[in-house]
Design brief:
Blueprint (H helix, E strand, L loop, with lengths): L1 H14 E5 L2 E2 L16 E5 L2 E6 L13 E3 L4 E4 L1 E3 L11 H8 L4 H6 L4 H9 L3 H16 L3 E7 L6 H17 L3 E9 L10 H18 L5 E6 L6 H13 L5 E4 L7 H7 L4 E4 L5 H10 L2 E4 L1 H6 L8 H6 L4 E3 L13 H12 L3 H7 L2 H6 L16 E4 L6 H4 L6 E5 L5
Parallel strand pairs: 1-5, 2-6, 7-8, 8-9, 9-10, 10-11, 11-12, 12-13, 13-14
Antiparallel strand pairs: 1-3, 3-4, 6-15, 15-16
Helix pairs in contact: 5-6, 6-7, 7-8, 9-10, 13-14
């Protein structure tokens, strides 16, 4: 019996590895700030975290496991970018210049720019083109410790190209060590060929493509843009009812430019998240709280569009709505591929605390994607980690244009 136990311990030591001499921000909710309670070691066994604690309390079965000394560095969960549009064709530097010359986001969109201009370029791109264009953007996120990224469709607006975008997003996860969650955003805008016929577009293109993408296994969640320049609440309801019938969770772009009640509508469907929400009122905040829906804060679009209406951070705090932070990386309103910069912007522009921004890029971002196996450092969670050359977690949202990542761990592999 003793020999069997010793043999088992040797096998455990061979499959496990230890990170030690580090400061661990577990980001567990309800604990000390940042979840920091003095842990200075953790054990990874395969792709999972097996143990977290103090080095002198290391369980016996791990005593012979290989050790990596991190020389006092900070360890956090791997970062999660829970709202991106990484896959697209072309760029929108021209409309960037238009806005700087005085045109509003709505004026650009109504003049045929905005989302529709990217639709044209995306329709002209092959799947290989889309993958090649997205890889540098994805690499920029990975270089900052991102281990999970959500990628939306929404620049095809026809069955052929929407599915092409989703396939391209799936391929990215085969080319890089990162988890990609795909979101179908067929209800992003009304394409030119259906101008003035939004309901017909939903009936003939958007909802049938949703069914086709689901059948092919390409869709993890369904999103819609509920806004005056996009889709009205009743139209979004049609899309969400179709998603619910397929058992797919929903998300929403809502209250970015006005308050149409989109966030509350999405909450009624048990949405994973409501994103942007600058014009969200207290009734909408309460709806998110009641549904357990995360609020995704997107300071990149606010900054790029030079908006002045800030999201209701104080109300979200008061109602204990989880706040995630994401890049909204896209070619028009947020051409940003730095989640660290998004965290800084959320703190500087919206007065979120550094702890809130880090929770927003870890624990709450996981919630916004419906992922219960990451975002916190704890036994049983995925061993997705970021190791930083910083002394305290606040440095991650304090700096601008500086990347202090020392190493990134994806599924237990550094």
């Amino acid at each position: 019996m003793r020999g069997q136990v010793e043999s088992l311990l040797r096998v455990t030591a061979l499959t496990a590895s230890i990170l030690t001499n580090c400061t661990i921000a577990t980001m567990a909710s309800g604990q000390a700030p940042y979840g920091m309670t003095g842990q200075d070691a953790l054990v990874m066994d395969g792709a999972a975290i097996a143990w977290v604690g103090r080095r002198h309390d290391l369980p016996e079965e791990y005593l012979d496991a290989p050790i990596t000394d991190l020389a006092g560095r900070l360890v956090t969960p791997g970062l999660i970018d829970c709202h991106t549009h990484l896959v697209f064709g072309g760029h929108r530097a021209v409309e960037f210049e238009m806005r700087l010359n005085g045109a509003s986001y709505e004026e650009v969109a109504r003049a045929g720019g905005g989302i529709i201009s990217t639709v044209t370029d995306t329709r002209d791109a092959s799947e290989d083109d889309l993958v090649a264009g997205a890889l540098p953007r994805l690499d920029a996120l990975i270089a900052e410790g991102v281990t999970t990224v959500e990628i939306k469709s929404g620049y095809g607006l026809n069955a052929l190209v929407e599915l092409r975008m989703l396939r391209a997003a799936r391929r990215l996860a085969q080319l890089r060590p990162v988890t990609v969650k795909t979101t179908y955003l067929g209800a992003h805008a009304v394409p030119p060929e259906y101008a003035g016929q939004a309901d017909l577009y939903l009936e003939e293109v958007c909802i049938p493509t949703l069914h086709a993408g689901h059948e092919e296994g390409l869709i993890d969640a369904v999103d819609a843009f509920c806004e005056g320049i996009a889709f009205q609440p009743a139209q979004v309801t049609r899309v969400f009812e179709a998603a619910a019938a397929l058992g797919l969770p929903v998300k929403i772009h809502a209250e970015q430019l006005s308050n149409l009640g989109g966030a509350a509508l999405a909450a009624g469907f048990g949405a994973l998240s409501a994103d942007h929400i600058e014009y969200l009122d207290e009734a909408g905040v309460q709806a998110l709280a009641d549904a357990g829906t995360a609020a995704v804060i997107l300071p990149g679009a606010f900054y790029t569009l030079r908006e002045t209406q800030m999201p209701p951070i104080d109300l979200l705090r008061a109602h204990k709505v989880p706040m995630a932070v994401a890049t909204d990386a896209n070619p028009g309103s947020s051409p940003m591929t730095s989640l660290l910069l998004a965290m800084n912007m959320a703190a500087t522009l919206f007065r979120m605390t550094p702890e809130e921004t880090l929770a927003g890029a870890t624990r709450n971002a996981a919630l916004a994607l419906g992922l219960a196996d990451r975002g916190v450092i704890a036994p049983g969670m995925r061993a997705d980690l970021a190791i930083w050359d910083v002394s305290i977690p606040a440095e991650l949202s304090y700096r601008m244009g500086f990347n202090p990542l020392y190493a990134r761990v994806f599924g237990g592999v550094m």
